[in-house]
Amino acid sequence: MTQPDLITLTDPRSPAAEAFRTLRTNLLFSAVKEPVRTLVVTSPAPEEGKSTALANLAVTLAQSGRETIIVDADLRRPTQHTIWAVEQAPGLTTAMLEDLDTMPLLDVGVEHLRLLPSGPLPPNPADLVGSERMALVVERLLGEADFILFDAPPVITVTDAAILAARLNGVLMVVRAGK
User: Are 173 and 43 in contact (CB under 8 A)?
Assistant: First the structure.
C-alpha cells in the first residue's frame, strides 16, 4: 500500500521526488575515502518532516539497487511504522533487549528496502541508544545492507540523536523552510 507522504512512490516524476534523488546522489558522492553507510536523520524541532524525508530518501536508495534498512530509533515518538502501515513491534528495542538471533526486519513493499520499527517504547531511550547493545545492532545491520538510515528524535528536545550520531558515519539535519 503506497502512503501519500511517500512522494518518491506516489509521484516519482515530481520535482520533490527528483529532489530526493539529488539528495541520494549527493550522499553517495559526499565521502571520497570512506562511503557513508550509516546515517542519522534528525531535525532541530518536532514536526519538521524528518521521518518523511528519511522514508523518501530510503526509497531512492533502494530504487538504485542498494540494500537499505530504515531503523526507527525515535524511541519517544516513532512514526516509521505509521508511514509504512506496519506493526510497531517487534522492533529495535526488542532486538536490543531480547538478544534475537535474527533482526525483526519488515518488508515494506519496495524492493531492496526493509524496516526495523521502534518496538515497544522504553522508559530510558537515551540510555538504550547509547548502550553497547545498540553498537551490536548497528554492527549486525551493516552485515545486511549497503545503507542504514536511523530516524532519531529532534536534537533540541533530547540527546538521543547526538548520542546515536557518535556511532554512525553521518548526520542529515532536516529543517522546514520558514521555521
Answer: yes
Give the angle subtended at the CA of 116 by the CAs of 110 and 119, to the nearest 5°. Answer: 140
pLDDT at 103: 92
Helix (H, G, I), strand (E, B) or coil at 69: strand
What average pLDDT does the segment 131-148 reach? 95
What's the pTM? 0.94
Question: How far is residue 79's CA from residue 6's CA, in Å, rounded to a whole number?
Answer: 13
Print burial letters for 136-167: b (CB count within 10 Å at least 16), e (below 16): ebbeebeeebbbbbbbbbbbeebebbbbbbeb
Give which of 166, 175, 122, 172 is closest to 147, Cα–Cα.
172
127: amino acid identity, one letter: D
HSE of 150 in the Cβ direction (CA atoms, 13 Å)? 31
Residue 2 has pLDDT above 60, yes or no: no
DSSP 8-state secondary structure symbol assigned to residue 122 = P
Strands 170-173, 38-42: pairing is: parallel
